[in-house]
Amino acid sequence: MSSRRTYRFRNYNIRADSDSPKLYSAACVTDKGAPCDAHKETIEPEAIERWIAEHVRDTGHEHFRRTFSELVTATPEEWQ
């Protein structure tokens, strides 16, 4: 007896949710003897730039991971 399977594909429309703000973050990844756990999250990109500059000034650390995230809405389209 053989089994039969049918696979169908579906596309999704993925778009940024314009009603929610982006979240910006930065984390110090400098490791001078011990890892630095300093980080900042905000919805204001200018505040991240300012925080990085102040952290460099205060610690001499120079390496950061800067990211942003946003909420998205995924709407399924028709089955194919």
Radius of gyration (Å): 22 Å
Q: In one word, what is the shape?
A: elongated
The helix count comes to: 1
Strand content: 35-45%
Order of helices and strands: EEEHEE
Any low-confidence stretches, pLDDT <50, length ≥5?
none
Sequence-ordered SSE layout with sheet pairings:
Layout: E1 10-16, E2 23-28, E3 39-42, H1 45-59, E4 64-69, E5 72-79
Antiparallel strand pairs: 1-5, 2-3, 2-4
Mind explaining what this structure looks like?
The chain has 80 residues and is an alpha+beta fold. Helix content is 19%, strand content 39%. It has 1 helix and 5 strands. It has one helix spanning 45-59, and strands at residues 10-16, 23-28, 39-42, 64-69, 72-79. The chain has a 3-stranded antiparallel sheet, with helices on one face. A two-stranded antiparallel sheet has the order 1-5. The longest helix has 15 residues, at 45-59. The model has no long low-confidence stretch (mean pLDDT 91).
Question: What characteristics describe this protein?
Answer:
single chain; 80 residues; alpha+beta; 3-stranded antiparallel beta sheet; two-stranded antiparallel ribbon; 19% helix; elongated
Short description:
This protein is an alpha+beta fold.
